[in-house]
Specification:
alpha+beta; Penicillin Amidohydrolase, domain 1; ten-stranded mixed sheet; seven-stranded antiparallel sheet; 23 helices; about 35% helix
């Protein structure tokens, strides 16, 4: 009997080893190879070389040739990411995973992105259609030439990718609109808050702060800070407003669709700054950009360098930077003449209207393992009904706003030609940061600003039964605010209120707290700044809000906790025990202030995490006990003391703040999580630091351009270039993203090539 048990055990072991070997061979077989097909449509030969991180340099005669090859390369490394993205946008995820994805699919079908994308392609300028078609040709060349070798995810789902179309790229663009401008639920909360006295409401949701960092100044007299005004004048309690209904955040196979909504930390976004040559060590401008997005496996950005060569093979122009996989060209980039970066400007491009149903749209949703579902979408005069009786007007649902003059951007040579390109890019709204080789620096707003009727600011739902509250179009692009070569020689944007009242009209927007912008200004106010210092600034973990709140509330803390904070520098390092306590103090103090301001209102303090309320908290902790009593907030020290007195020092910050990136197949953990998910190291930084670092949201890449040495530009991703399991470039950038690379030795974007090139023939 024992002999038979040993034989059976041995056989099982052999079978397990054999299965493991088959799995290894199969996964390795999915990795990118060096076999390339002929690419129809190429005007001439294209050569691609890769550096040690797998970042390609594409040498082509024309940009459209480069876009064709870019499409092939994107599909080679990121096809499943692209496939999932177009299905999320179009509401087609349930077809892959079953009924669990129906809530997401239904929401996306209400918006109708698939239909909007098709219409946008039909109406797009010819050169833009040609660019997206060139990318699609390259993607489809990979799909056709690698049957059954598209990635292990396709095998596990039994999925064959359908051909890529230009409309699929527009779907991905619409996902960016959704992530950066979906704000209609704020209108419902604003409506509830409007039942409070005006001063109390403004205190809870301030638009203006004494700490604002403006790019364009306020006109005289400046608008009064709403928080300080409330604490100075006080206000009587108002009636209890009805609690707003909040939809839960939706996920796509475990990845939040709206990474900075639905309960995520409020003070997040992106950082970008430019410093003129008069203040740099080598006399040329420096541009830094670290856009903040939800982490994914793989990440948002696909880096590439494009070299446009003449008939003799010499480089005529070059462009390098990042763009999203599935879209042509580069979004954040440097070329031989200039560089640009972006941060979200927060423009309000959504309004809700109360109006009757005027039509319907029927959507059929395929569901894996179950019958198809039919969804009837009610339509109002202004758009789809996102709630019964509430129609959504959204600039992104206007196909005319879905334009992408990528080639004009990439080939711009100066401020004038760049602005001409930006005038043709109507959304989503961004702060565009600029620097060039001639020494100029600048800023402008991009996107669209709806022209609302007089007295409408888009904050709350409107009456849609008449045309009185209709938009009358968008602000003409020649009136978009912009600034070239400011006297200060520096421009900072970190999603703060940047556009003051001197612009001459109200810029309807949701500003982030000026916290990060204030800290950036502190750091770049020095002289003789160099690229190494700027790369270090991007890793700065000083949380100035936490630092001030702890200092002001020190008398209310436990004595041993107050003593521990006496020499605290405000840093949110992973090994900091003090920062974990400081975050608890900040959170509790903020909720206590909000509760005192709401009093008996039916809105919960946690609802206001939707807003960037550092100005509210700072105004409250700076105010005197007398100001609190006058404002009707109660006994200052009693309210705040009860909130923070029990805070203790309880372990390092990195214990709570760990990277939590999940692959779509690793959501449930277990063996698939172990196989597909990346590591979960502790993170330095916080949601209010320059180094925004939360478990699922943070610096989606870091780039620094120094025009004193344009070839030494650095760029690093959170994970790596590839989405393929076991690819050497799947996680190889994580160490440098975590530790930083101040010298730029390992993260240089224009790095030496490794190995022979890939050659694409027409």
């Amino acid at each position: 009997m024992r002999r038979w048990i040993r034989r059976i055990a041995g056989l099982l072991l052999v079978l397990v080893v054999a299965a493991a070997l088959v799995l290894v061979v199969d996964v390795r077989n999915q990795l990118p190879d060096r076999n390339v097909p002929r690419l129809r449509g190429l005007s001439s030969r294209v050569e691609v070389r890769f550096d040690a991180r797998g970042i390609p340099t594409v040498r082509a005669r024309t940009l459209q040739d480069a876009f064709r090859v870019q499409g092939y390369l994107q599909a080679r490394e990121r096809l499943f990411q692209m496939e999932l993205g177009r299905r999320v946008a179009g509401g087609e995820v349930a077809e892959l995973v079953g009924a669990a994805a129906l809530p997401l699919d239904k929401k996306q079908r209400v918006y109708g992105f698939a239909r909007v994308a098709e219409e946008a392609v039909r109406g797009a300028p010819e050169e833009q259609r040609a660019d997206t078609q060139a990318l699609a040709d390259g993607i489809n060349a990979f799909i056709a030439s690698h049957r059954g070798r598209w990635g292990v995810e396709f095998q596990m789902l039994g999925l064959e990718p359908r051909p890529w179309t230009p409309a699929d790229s527009i779907r991905l663009l619409l996902l960016f609109h959704q992530q950066l401008s979906e704000s209609w639920q704020d209108d419902l909360l604003n409506e509830a808050l409007d039942t409070l006295p005006r001063a109390r409401r403004d205190f809870l949701t301030p638009e203006v702060s004494t700490d604002d960092v403006l790019v364009l100044p306020d006109a005289a007299p400046p608008p009064p800070p709403s928080t300080a005004a409330f604490l100075a004048r006080g206000a009587a309690p108002g009636p209890a407003p009805a609690p707003p209904r909040r939809d839960p955040p939706l996920e796509v196979l475990g990845v939040p669709l709206e990474p900075w909504n639905g309960g995520s930390p409020p003070d997040v976004g992106s950082n970008a700054w430019v410093v003129g040559g008069a203040h740099t060590a080598r006399g040329k401008p420096i541009l830094a950009n670290d856009p903040h997005l939800g982490f994914g496996m793989p990440g948002t950005w696909y880096p590439v360098r494009i070299e446009l060569v003449g008939a003799d093979g010499t480089v005529q122009r070059w462009i390098q930077g990042v763009g999203p996989a599935g879209l042509p060209g580069l979004v954040i980039f440097q070329n031989d003449r200039l560089a640009i970066g972006y941060t979200n400007i927060g423009t309000d491009v959504q309004d809700l209207y109360r109006e009757p149903v005027v039509g319907q749209r029927v959507e059929t949703i395929a569901v894996k393992g179950a019958p198809a579902e039919t969804l009837t979408v009610s339509l109002g005069r202004h758009g789809p009904m996102v709630r019964p009786g509430l129609a959504l007007a959204w600039a992104a649902l206007d196909p005319a706003t879905l334009r992408g003059p990528v080639a004009r951007f990439m080939l711009a040579t100066d401020w004038t030609s760049l602005n001409a390109a930006a005038d043709g890019f109507p959304g989503p709204g961004q702060n565009l940061m600029y620097a060039d080789a001639e020494g100029h620096i600048g800023w402008r707003a991009t996107g669209v600003l709806p022209l609302r009727a007089s007295g409408n600011d888009g904050r709350v739902p409107l009456d849609g039964t008449t045309s009185a509250h209709d938009w009358s179009g968008y602000l003409p692009q020649n009136r978009m605010p912009r600034l070239l070569d400011p006297p200060s020689g520096r421009v900072v944007t970190a999603n703060q209120r940047a556009i003051g009242t001197s612009v001459g009209y109200r810029w309807a927007s949701s500003w982030a707290s000026p916290t990060r912008a204030r800290r950036i200004v502190e750091l770049i106010s020095k002289e003789e700044i160099d690229a190494r210092q700027v790369r270090t600034m991007q890793l700065d973990t000083v949380a100035i809000v936490h630092r001030e709140v702890v200092q002001r509330l020190a008398p209310l803390l436990r004595p041993e906790v107050a003593r521990a904070f006496e020499r605290w520098n405000g840093r949110a390092d992973a090994d900091s025990t003090l920062f974990l306590a400081a975050e608890e103090i900040r959170r509790r103090a903020y909720e206590a202030v909000v509760a005192a301001a709401l009093q008996q209102a039916a809105i919960r303090p946690s609802e206001l995490h939707w807003y960037d309320n550092d100005p509210t908290l700072l105004a409250a902790v700076r105010a005197s006990p007398e100001a609190w009593r006058k404002a009707g907030l109660g006994d200052r020290d009693a309210v705040l003391g009860a909130a923070v007195r029990d805070v203790t020092l309880d372990g390092p910050w990195g214990r709570r703040n760990r990277l939590e990136v999940t692959h779509p197949f690793g959501r449930s953990g277990g063996p698939l999580g172990w196989i597909f998910n990346p590591p979960s190291p502790p993170l330095s930084g916080c949601d209010r630091c320059i180094r925004v670092a939360t478990p699922r949201f943070g610096q989606s890449m870091r780039m620094v351009v120094d025009f004193a040495d344009p070839d030494a530009t650095t760029l690093v991703l959170p994970l790596g270039m590839s989405g393929h399991l076991w690819s050497p470039h799947r996680l190889d950038q994580l160490p440098d993203w975590l530790a930083g690379d101040p010298e730029g030795a390992r993260t240089r974007l224009h790095a030496p090539a490794v190995g022979p090139p890939l050659v694409f023939e027409p």
